[in-house]
Write a structure and sequence with these properties.
This is Lipoprotein. It comes from Methylococcus capsulatus. Keywords: Signal. The chain is α+β, with helices and mostly antiparallel strands and 102 residues long. It contains two helices and four strands, in the order αββαββ. Strands 1-3-4-2 form a four-stranded mixed β-sheet. The N and C termini lie far apart (46 Å). About 15% of the residues have low confidence.
């Protein structure tokens, strides 16, 4: 009986993981304004690097944060906007998020 319970539990866990993975959104494609002319604008997303990051590395962290927000709202494409630093260690990245249908 213990083996059957473990097998059923394992199958249930595997099924749940599979369903969650199927719901994950793909990272948005980075494109230019020309590429999104026929797409639906969703919103401007903003990513922050946070505080106390390594010198010179705030930009990739801010971009990743903006991409995560775009993914959460279902954006298929983004167009990068501004990158603003706040001191040597911090900054924000903005992008326009679009749904172009994948």
């Amino acid at each position: 009986m213990l083996t059957k319970t473990m097998t059923t539990t394992t199958l249930g866990i595997a099924l749940t993981i599979g369903l969650l993975a199927g719901q994950a959104h793909a990272k948005p494609n980075i494109v230019t304004e020309t590429d999104v002319k026929s797409c639906r604008f969703l919103k401007t997303v903003v990513g922050s690097s946070g505080y106390g990051k390594k010198i010179g590395s705030w930009q990739p962290q801010a971009k990743a944060s903006a991409e995560r927000e775009a993914t959460q709202i279902g954006a298929s494409h983004i167009v990068w906007g501004d990158f603003k630093s706040f001191g040597a260690f911090n900054g924000i990245a903005t992008a326009k998020a679009y749904d172009c249908g994948r």
